[in-house]
Write a structure and sequence with these properties.
- The protein is α/β, with parallel strands linked by helices and 312 residues long.
- It folds into five domains: 93 residues, no CATH class; 46 residues; 75 residues, 2-Layer Sandwich (Nucleotidyltransferase, domain 5); 29 residues; 49 residues, no CATH class.
- It contains nine helices and twelve strands.
- Strands 1, 2, 5, 6 and 7 form a five-stranded mixed sheet that branches. The chain has a five-stranded mixed sheet with strand order 10-9-8-11-12.
- β11, α5 and β12 form a beta-alpha-beta unit.
- The relative contact order is 0.06.
- InterPro entries: Transpos_ISL3, Transposase_DDE, Transposase_Znf.
- It comes from Allorhizobium borbori.
- This is Transposase.
- Pfam families: DDE_Tnp_ISL3 (PF01610), Zn_ribbon_ISL3 (PF14690).
């Protein structure tokens, strides 16, 4: 048993405390990791080659009514494995100490989670403030969702389409889980090879909804030969709309002749269609008056004066 109390006794053994600074409302603890090396999260190889260092500020449990801020110096290591995709990686601490990308220690995160479960959003935020824990009600609710949300099941029905990183310049591929109605992947381009590489890693997919282009069809056929390919509803409606408009344009002369002899029953129109139809009738009446004046030889200036319409 140690005869003297050290500030480092309050912190995990993985951290080495360099200095402690006292302020009126906060205690700042400067520390760094004690391990000589770190394992690459990609290939698992331990590296001792330090690339660089960067600061990381972590909030810990309060002490004596004052908040505690950990100013960590985190090392970046160089992976020694040539074929590893992760050339440089940051120092990792145990999940029981500080989780990756976290801004609170694991023990503070656990306490925040229990407060949110017991009291909810705003009551837990007010109580946490009295305890010296600077967390908002939104943070508390996010903590509950993050801990209690089960991992999503692998998608079995997906939709693939292109989308614009920058319109008219750069396009990528968006992949959605159609059963959960969630975006699950954004690919950097719309090349069939890129889409195929992603689909190969998802052999459980049974249905692929896509546009009528050949690129995604080729990628799906090669990566998932067992999957059924269907045209999505949006592209079906879009293609049907284009086909209908093309047919109407080609037969516009016959359409004008047929519509010109027919009468419209205003009772069958919606409110918006009725307004549009009434405007059409007013324009037709005005045009008829103007054509009659032109036929009588009235000058344009006089027509403008009588009708109140611009010559344009």
């Amino acid at each position: 048993m140690s005869a003297y109390f050290q500030p480092s006794d309050l912190f995990p053994a993985e951290l080495e405390v360099e200095a402690v600074h006292h302020r009126p409302d906060v205690i700042v603890v400067t520390a760094h990791g004690q391990s000589r090396g770190c394992r690459c999260p990609e290939c698992g190889t331990t590296s001792h080659r330090v690339h660089s260092r960067y600061p990381r500020i972590i909030t810990d449990l309060p002490c004596a009514g004052r908040r505690i801020k950990l100013h960590l110096t985190v090392r970046r290591f160089i992976c020694n494995v040539v074929h590893c995709r992760r050339k440089i990686f940051a120092e990792r601490f145990g999940d029981g100490v500080i989780r990756p990308m976290a801004r609170r220690t694991a023990r503070l995160e656990t306490l925040v989670h229990h407060l949110a479960l017991a009291l909810g959003g705003r009551p837990a935020a007010r109580f946490a403030d009295r305890l010296g824990l600077p967390v908002s009600n939104d943070t508390l609710l996010r903590t509950v969702r993050r801990y209690d949300r089960p991992p999503p099941p692998p998608p079995s029905v997906i939709g693939i389409d292109d989308w614009a990183w920058r319109r008219n310049h750069r396009y990528g591929t968006i992949i959605c889980d159609l059963e959960r109605r969630k975006t699950i992947a954004l690919l950097p381009d719309r090349e069939p090879s890129t889409t195929k590489a992603w689909l190969v890693e998802q052999p459980q997919i049974e249905i692929v909804a896509r546009d009528r282009g050949g690129g995604y069809a080729q990628a799906a056929a090669q990566a998932l030969p067992h999957a059924e390919q269907v045209a999505d509803r949006w592209h079906l409606m879009e293609n049907a709309s284009h086909a209908f408009l093309d047919a109407v344009r080609k037969s516009m002369r016959e359409v004008r002749v047929a519509v010109g002899t027919a009468t419209v029953n205003p009772k069958l129109l919606t409110a918006a269609e009725r307004l549009q139809y009434e405007g059409y009738l007013r324009r037709e009446e005005t045009n008829s008056v103007i054509r009659g004046l032109v036929g009588e030889g009235v000058s344009i200036k006089e027509i403008v004066r009588r009708t109140g319409h611009s010559r344009k």
